[in-house]
Structures are given as C-alpha cells and as structure tokens.
Amino acid sequence: MVPFIDLTPQYRSIESEILSATKRVFEKGRFILGEEVSAFEDEFARYCGVRYGVGVNSGTDALYLALKVAGIGRGDGVITVANSFVASAFAISFTGAKPLFVDIDPGTYTMDPNALENLLKKKRVNRIKAILPVHLYGHPAEVDSIAEIARRYDLMIIEDACQAHGAVYKGKKVGSFGDMSCFSFYPTKNLGCYGDGGMVVTDNKKLYERLKLLRCYGEKKKYEHILQGGNSRLDEVQAAILRIKLKYLDRWNEQRREKALIYKKELVGSGVICPTEKEDCSHVYHLFVIRTKRRDGLQSFLKGKGIDTLIHYPIPIHLQKTYKALGYQRGDFPITERSCREVLSLPFFPEITDSEMEVVSKQIRSFFCGRKLRVRSPFSI
Q: E-assigned strands of the chain?
C-alpha cells in the first residue's frame, strides 16, 4: 500500500516543538489575534519578501478579501484560469464580479500570457479590473509577462499562491510579484497547519490596513465598526504551529525537489509525461502530476495495486455546472480541457520513501509494458 500523502512522519519529526508551541498558547489563554498571529504574519511576509501579512481563516477567504480590498465588485471582470481548484473562481464570484478564463501553458499548467493578451484585446478593458494568476502544483506562473501586460492595461495582480509556498521565479519568491498574494495553510500544503488557515501578503500599507479591518468585522477598535467586514481570523494555535513549520519549509521543499527527480528518472520512457520546470524557476512540487491519454485506466490499475492517486482537477472550472450561466462551451480552452482529461497526481510528500516511489514507478511501467509508445512533448496540444 502506498498512500497518496502521509502527514504523520512530518509531525513526528517536530512533535516536541509543536507540543511546546501549542502549550505556550494554552498557558497564555489568548486564542484569537494575539502575539502568535502577529509574529507569524511578520515572519511569513518576510519569508515572501514583502512587508505585510494578514492571517485569515482559509486560502479561499484570502482570495476573496484580497479581491474585496482591491475594489472588485458587481459588474467587474477578473481574469484567471479554468485549470485550478474552484475556489480561485468562487472568490471572484463572491465579490459579485465575473470570472473570465484564459487557457494555460501546456508545460507548466499556468496562465498563458498570450491567451491573456488576446482576451484583453477582445474585451472592454474598462470592466476588467484584475488578473488572478495561479501558481499551480507548485510551479510559478509567468509573472514577468503577466505583470507587463497588467501595467499596459492598468490592472491589478492578485497571485493565487495557495499551492506554491517557497516557489521561486527569477530569484524572487512567489507572493512578492502581485499587488496582493494569497496563500492557503490547509494541512496538505507545503506549509500546512493542523486545521484551516490562510494569509494575504502585500507591500501596500493601505491594502494591508483595509485587509485587517475586513477580516474582523470592519472593527477599528472594540465595538467601533467602520466597514462591513466579517469573521476571517487565523487563530493563535494554528499560527504557533505554522511558526514552527515555517523554519523547515525550505528543507521540506528541497526534499520535494529531490524526490521529484527520482520520479522523473524512474519514469523515463515509461509512457507518461512528467512535470517540467522552466528556466529561472524553482518548482516546489506541491503535487507531482503526470499526464497520459490512458489516465483513467492507469489510475484504476494503480488502485488495484494498492497505490493511491488523485486527479487535480478532472473538470475544468468553465465546464462546472455552477458556471453554466457564463456561457462557456466545451472546446473553448483546448489545452486546459486536455490536461484535465490526462493529469494524474502520484503519491508525493517529503517523507515518501525511495522504495515507495520505486513501487509506484514499477507499476506504471508495468501498465504500459508491451505497448509501443510515442511520448508526446508536453508542449504539444
């Protein structure tokens, strides 16, 4: 049996530190917006290379609140990709704005800047307010090209970095390129807590101050509410846990990169397309995602061998029933749709053993055994 992910080895390696941190919170008796949250906000913002961080209760709320403080609302458009978790689009919809989708780069599965440019040429730009690129699976989007387009069209950039803690693009960590950047600390993330959590980071003090208001009832001081905010607070226990884990994030990411290389070597000539890493980028492999036309058969075969896999994501957002009213059709985004038919996420986490990876790779080769294969380039449509 090879599990898709196992969080217990990581916990055991830092158990004493985690227990000490949580004990510290319990002994102080303050559980909401205290010293641990403030310290973690500062530490994580500094890690990303920006000045400010605002801890919230999830990655979804991080995206929603960032869009709200950006002034996004009813009648506006926000451009993103359909190959992502649906929360990327839901956050846009929750503001009353409309998600507008573009196709992806076939190698990195992130926003295609050419597709972005083409959409902006077609649409009335005065109703489009922001771009929301997703650093999917741990690989950075092409942020330089996206930022250059955003400048020309006077659009804000809000990074969805929920799957890319510590990923690097041209020497800078993701989270430092947008007007605001959003992270999730869901337990399975590269930096995950033991519950729900998220953060928005930014260099803009005005946006930072407004974010703090919106996450806590629009409250300037106790019982004085100057905005219609909500309850979206990162709690002290999770912040204390994240402070411990942040110290190990780069080490764990390097382990992920080392494990990814093992998979890539083991799967050469196997019949699947492995993840690519563009020049000047550092992929942190939140997921190790392969592609094959025989995805469903392979997944079923591996399940029969006791190997857990997942599909991220089987239905692109523009074809989800909840977005039927947007009017998108099958075939509108061929690269996105093809990847959704072919991607398969293999068992992967920093502590996965070489022997477990060998079992997975051996079974994948076994599935394709005896069949003459021509492995397509990841850049073909």
A: 52-56, 77-81, 98-102, 128-131, 156-160, 168-169, 172-173, 180-184, 198-202, 219-221, 224-225, 281-282, 288-291, 343-346
